[in-house]
Amino acid sequence: MTTVLVHGNPETTAVWDEFLPELARRGVDDIVLLSPPGYGAPIPEGFGCTRLEYRDWLIGRIEEIGAPVDLVGHDWGACHTYAVAAERPDLLRTWAADCGGMLHPRYEWHAAARTWQTPGEGEKRVAEMLTWTGADFVANRKIPARFGPSAAEGFDEVMGEAMLKLYRSAKQPAMSQLGEQLARAPRRPGLMLHTPEDPYTNPEDTFEMAGRVGADVATLTGAAHWWMFGASDQAADALVSFWARHAPGR
Prior knowledge:
Blueprint (H helix, E strand, L loop, with lengths): L2 E4 L13 H6 L5 E4 L16 H15 L3 E5 L2 H12 L4 E6 L13 H6 L4 H9 L4 H8 L6 H7 L2 H12 L5 H11 L5 E5 L10 H9 L2 E4 L12 H15 L4
Parallel strand pairs: 1-2, 1-3, 3-4, 4-5, 5-6
């Protein structure tokens, strides 16, 4: 069975570097890493980098794989995962994602996102971010120190352009509407990763949203937004246990 991992912002597949060995140690070896356009992958001509276009991009990539997959998303990759589970659950055997609080009706975008969503101010911030070192990403975005250099290396003008368009397409009530759509959709086995120290997503709302959409919850003790640095072993255990319960014979 194929496991598909989708990362978010401001990231490339380097975000999974410490997580992949944990999955391998648990016998998970059929893994596909997908990079959303602009996030370590080119932006196709005519692609507008909106949240719905990313949803449809991910649907298309899973269709190319040709069988139901176990989909795992982080950050915006989580939002793309929720969008696929809401729109095309038939493509999934299971789904798992963090940032469940982003789907809650009371969710409000964090300060950096609100800046990116503001014309003029967002462009100024991207120009500033293009000068950042790894240490700057650690200081300003709370990125783990081990990921800082990769984040700085991966952030370029293409990613900045994609970031602004994506966040501007996702102003509220877009995210709460996605939560409502997922709650109404035919259900596939789902797992929400609860990261108690996440500064961006209202972590405790994960439990309420999981109840609304019929998903399991796994708490990663002490974990923050980038749980794959420091809690990758917990996450791998949680996923393997989840798959054992809901996808026997994997």
